[in-house]
Design brief:
The chain is an alpha+beta fold and 280 residues long. It has one domain (1-57, 66-229). The chain has helices at 2-10, 72-84, 138-152, 187-198, 229-238, 260-266, 270-279, and strands at 14-17, 28-36, 42-51, 89-95, 109-110, 125-128, 156-157, 164-166, 171-176, 179-184, 203-207, 211-212, 215-220, 223-227. The chain has a 6-stranded antiparallel β-sheet with strand order 7-8-9-10-4-11, sandwiched between helices. Strands 1-6-5 form a 3-stranded antiparallel β-sheet, with no helix packed on it. Strands 12-13-14 form a 3-stranded antiparallel β-sheet. Pfam families: RVT_2 (PF07727). It comes from Araneus ventricosus. Residues 12-239 form the Reverse transcriptase Ty1/copia-type domain.
Length: 280
């Protein structure tokens, strides 16, 4: 938690002011999560401070919220054509606390984080200067921040799709919010692109693309196998009472369905709805 607040202080996410009249400040809360690697092992415990942006009113506190991302079908396409077809190099990177780089245009006031109020200034509120997580417009503001930075660095955006940029015809950058995949003709080309971005953002190099958006990338014999084994195992662990036993193909001619009365009782719960969403 202190690490998160230190990052916010470094990037000047807010400054304390007296609450203006007729203003209802939003609250904030801590969200905790586990960061896992490509094998499912926990590598980091994350704490993130998020603003309660759901209390804001569209048209007053924010307007347009749409933010583009790269289409995953195009990620598969470039891996097939360039990585497998032409043996290009790929490196995955992550931008730490990406939203906190983006300036916030609207006036948003927030209560100080509970338990971390500044001594002697407990009655003051935070006027947000950067796009804090939890605000409706934060994703959009971050996109424009990195888009303009890439443009100034000489990257050219593809006209026919979102969030794909080229650099000197031998380097591609695929952007999905704060996840970046560089695909280049050589490792030198890729590292050049990474170093350009590291001048402006805290860019962490994760190595070859192993896991992206819940999908695993596995290289075998100059081929790339894309699958979701970890996700399937997670679904099986969380919803094991709903799943029929595994069966090899071709399957035997027997029914693996559970007792209809038991299934009917299970389907009444909210967990069943979560299961259907998970396998969709």
């Amino acid at each position: 938690m202190k690490e998160e607040l230190n990052v916010m202080q470094e990037r000047k996410v807010w400054h304390l002011v007296d609450l203006p009249p007729n203003i209802d400040p939003i609250g904030c809360r801590w969200v905790f999560a586990l960061k896992k690697n490509e094998t499912g092992e926990v590598v980091r415990y994350k704490a993130r401070l998020v603003g309660q942006g759901f209390k804001r009113i569209k048209g007053i506190s924010y307007d347009v919220t749409f933010s583009p991302v790269v289409n995953f079908s195009l990620i598969r396409f470039f891996f097939a054509v360039l990585v497998v077809g032409q043996n290009w190099v790929h490196i995955q990177c992550d931008i730490k606390c990406a939203y906190l780089y983006a300036p916030l245009k609207e006036d948003v006031f927030m209560k100080q984080p509970p338990g971390f109020e500044v001594k002697g200034k407990e009655g003051m509120v935070c006027k947000l200067d950067k796009a804090l997580y939890g605000l409706h417009q934060s994703g959009r503001e971050w996109f424009f921040e990195i888009h303009n930075t890439l443009k100034n660095l000489g990257f050219n955006k593809f006209e026919w799709c979102n969030c794909i940029y080229s650099y000197e015809n031998d380097l591609l950058l695929l952007l999905y919010v704060d996840d970046i995949v560089f695909i280049g003709r050589s490792i030198e080309k890729v590292m050049r692109g990474i170093k350009l971005l590291q001048k402006y953002f805290d860019l962490k190099i994760l190595g070859k693309t192993r896991r992206l958006l819940g999908v695993e990338f596995e290289e075998k014999n100059e081929e790339v196998f894309i699958h979701q084994s970890m996700y399937i195992d997670e679904i099986h662990r969380r919803f094991s009472e709903y799943l029929i036993p595994f069966s090899s193909l071709p399957s035997v001619k027997v029914s693996f369905l559970p007792d209809p009365n038991v299934l009917k009782q299970i389907m009444k719960g909210r967990k069943w709805q979560n299961f259907l969403i998970g396998i969709y």
